[in-house]
Amino acid sequence: MSIERKPIRRGGIRSAGYDRGARILEIEFDNGSIVQHSGVGEEIARRFLASGSPVSYYRDTIEDEYTSKRVK
Predict the structure, then answer these.
(1) 3-class DSSP string for 35-63
(2) Which residue intervals define the domain KTSC in the entry (predicted)?
(3) What are the CA-CA distances from residue 32 to residues 14, 21, 23, 29, 42 (Å)?
């Protein structure tokens, strides 16, 4: 599965994308690692992708709340 990511380039996050059908949020960090979080609702993903401080939103709302899988 390939999720199209858009550049973010803020706070250690290089890019991120969301697959609405699969409810997967994929995040690429500046260190090159890529993590997928499953079960993420569309509104949560939208808020994360639009956030002025995506790393804070990620830590507060996504990181420990949704199952994650490192894909790279």
Answers:
(1) EEEECCCHHHHHHHHHCCCHHHHHHHHHC
(2) 13-66
(3) 8, 25, 22, 6, 25
What's the first-to-final CA gap in the chain, in angstroms?
Answer: 13
| Token representation of residue 69 | 């899988």
Cα separation of 20 and 44, whole Å? 11
What percentage of the chain reaches a pLDDT higher than 90? 93
Domain of residue 62 covers: 6-70
What is the tens place of the pLDDT at every residue in 24-34? 999 999 999 99
Q: Per-residue pLDDT tens for 39-58? A: 999 999 999 999 999 999 99
Domain count, the chain: 1
